[in-house]
Amino acid sequence: MYVRDAKNREEVWLLDRIEEMGLDETAFRSRDYVVAIDEESHEKAGFGRIRIHKGDEESVCELTSIGVLPEWRNQGVGAHVIERLVEYAGDEGFDTVYSLTNAAEYLAQFGFEPIEPAQLPDSLRDRLATKQENIQPDAVPLRVAVDRFQVPGHLRSRFKQASAGEPEDPEPEEGPEDFGIDPDEATYKYDTGD
């Protein structure tokens, strides 16, 4: 099992899973997502997103739309998706990651702590109100310092042993379409005409 950046060809798959799970697809961009993949079957097990809100004074980082397929739950998949996203936030220079969620208890095991809505940066305060009105009425604000985030040992062990039912088709090799290239219209610098 490993977690990698989402690919362009996975947009439809991501949007379908987000809709099935009733998650937030606001300002959807597949490049903001990561996907958990089983190494043997190449089956997708879960996904998540970091959304960066650029502000006049400072930018803030939000963890959102974390989903694990039912057959992969309780095996540490979500924990590793979240870990990858928090690492990414740290690499991008963020000290704090916020989440506006109805899964506060789940995130607490990683070090996320509840905060008052008034403590949120302005962009997230507005987003919380919108999210509570349209997507998750019971969403609450949480935050974690990137350097205080941790994955409990039992979730690391489960992730190493994770498995599901029947595997999907193996993940296809990357092609020109994965990079936004139309192979029927593209010309290639070193095309030999063969």
Write the layout of secondary structure elements.
Layout: E1 2-5, H1 11-21, E2 33-37, E3 44-53, E4 60-68, H2 77-91, E5 96-101, H3 104-108, E6 113-114, H4 122-134, E7 140-145, H5 153-160
Parallel strand pairs: 4-5
Antiparallel strand pairs: 1-2, 2-3, 3-4, 5-7, 6-7
Figure out the total of helices: 5
Mind telling me the C-alpha Rg? 18 Å
Shape: globular
The N- to C-terminal Cα distance equals 39 Å
CATH fold node name: Aminopeptidase
Q: How many domains? A: 1
Number of beta-strand segments: 7
**CATH homology superfamily name:** Gcn5-related N-acetyltransferase (GNAT)
- Arithmetic mean pLDDT: 82
The CATH architecture would be 3-Layer(aba) Sandwich
Poorly predicted residue ranges: 165-171
Helix content: 25-40%
Q: How would you characterize the largest beta sheet? A: 7 strands, mixed
Taken as a percent bin, the fraction of beta residues is 15-25%
Would you tell me the structural class of the helices and strands? alpha+beta
* Helix and strand run: EHEEEHEHEHEH
For the biggest β-sheet, the strand order reads 1-2-3-4-5-7-6
- In the CATH scheme, the class would be Alpha Beta
